[in-house]
C-alpha cells in the first residue's frame, strides 16, 4: 500500500461536507471530509468516534458544552454523547468511526473501502446533513 495524501484528497472533494473513505483500521473506518462554515444537527452514536482536525477548526457542541478543536488536535466523542457541529467549522477533518456493515468497494488507493462503495463517497449524503458522525 502506498501513502495517502490526506490533504490532497480533502482538497479534491467535490463539495463541503462530502467525505472520502481512506480505509479501515481494525473495526474503524477512516475517512476525510471538508467542512464549510455551516452548523449541523445534533446526533449521537452507539460507539465512540475520533475527530482529528488536519487544518481549519472544528467547533462542536458536546452534551450542550462548546468545544473548539484546532489543527493537529484530536477530539474523542464518547459513545452515546449528543454532539453537533457548530457554525464556524471549516477545513479538513479525519474521522475514525466504528464500521457498521462494511462492504467490498475500493478506496482511492485501490484498497478495501470500509464503506463498501466503489468511489469512497457513500457518506457524503450523511455529512451534507451536517452531522459529524457520517453514519
What does this structure look like?
The chain has 135 residues and is mainly β. It has helices spanning 6-11, 124-128, and strands spanning 19-25, 28-35, 49-62, 65-69, 74-77, 83-85, 90-98, 105-106, 112-113. The strands form two sheets. Strands 1, 2, 3, 4, 5, 6 and 7 form a seven-stranded antiparallel sheet that branches. It has a two-stranded antiparallel sheet with strand order 8-9. The longest helix is centred in the first third of the chain and has 6 residues, at 6-11. The chain is globular. The two termini are 26 Å apart. Residues 102-130 have low confidence and may be disordered.
What order do the helices and strands come in, and which of them pair?
Layout: H1 6-11, E1 19-25, E2 28-35, E3 49-62, E4 65-69, E5 74-77, E6 83-85, E7 90-98, E8 105-106, E9 112-113, H2 124-128
Antiparallel strand pairs: 1-2, 2-7, 3-4, 3-5, 3-6, 3-7, 8-9
